[in-house]
Amino acid sequence: MEFSSKLLETAVNEMSQLPGIGKRTALRLVLHLLKQPKEQTSFLSQALTSMREEVRFCVSCHNISDVDLCAICSNEKRDHQIICVVEDIRDVMAIENTGQFRGIYHVLGGKISPIDGVGPNQLNISSLVEKVKSGEVAEIIFALSSTIEGDTTNFYIYKQIQDCEVISSTIARGISVGDELEYADEVTLGRSILHRVPFEKSFKNN
């Protein structure tokens, strides 16, 4: 792809680094920005800069937040004895959109995947185990995607907390095997949360 401007080429190359954005799409987006008032482009660049420099992670659940304790964890109307374990922020958003869950979350930041070099120490697992061992948690809901990596992560955490007095459940398999939570429709995902099953049954039946 030939460019008449090095500035344009640099902007397109940077835009194409985003997931799902190829060079042609990046060019279309950059040209669109060039047609907009300078103020709008400035607002976009400022929003991205502020997000990158100021965004935080909740000290309790590791969800993305503007303050130390996210809005969900600081909400006294939520049931803090029920923790839904998810992979990342997209899963929190997907479950919240169902309107069916009133507990809190714990964001692992990924799944155990030896082939990708991701082990338990790279994830937010130890803080979850500490919460459970504190005795303040009544139920843990495993809501990771039903992939080999997701099941491996679920089982690893389960082994760490199986001697604690806590209910371990997993979302019902209304979610197809291999599917990611963020792509599930809200009705199916909501029902999976409501009709969760004991975790022991989920792996004994496999």
Topology:
Blueprint lengths: L5 H10 L7 H13 L2 H17 L1 E2 L6 E2 L13 E8 L2 H8 L6 E5 L18 H8 L5 E4 L5 H14 L5 E4 L15 H9 L2 E2 H6 L2
Parallel strand pairs: 3-4, 3-5, 5-6
Antiparallel strand pairs: 1-2, 6-7
* Fraction of residues in β-strands: 5-15%
Q: What is the number of E strands?
A: 7
N to C succession of SSEs: HHHEEEHEHEHEHEH
Biggest sheet, spatial arrangement of strands:
4-3-5-6-7
| Termini Cα gap | 50 Å
Number of DSSP helices? Answer: 8
Question: How does this model look, in words?
Answer:
Helix content is 41%, strand content 13%. The protein is of the alpha/beta class and 206 residues long. The strands form 2 sheets. It has a 5-stranded mixed β-sheet with strand order 4-3-5-6-7. Helix 1 crosses helix 2.
Question: Which features does this protein show?
Answer:
206 residues, five-stranded mixed beta sheet, two-stranded antiparallel sheet, 8 helices, elongated
Characterize this entry briefly.
The protein is α/β, with parallel strands linked by helices and 206 residues long. It has helices at residues 6-15, 23-35, 38-54, 89-96, 126-133, 148-161, 186-194, 199-204; strands spanning 56-57, 64-65, 79-86, 103-107, 139-142, 167-170, 197-198.
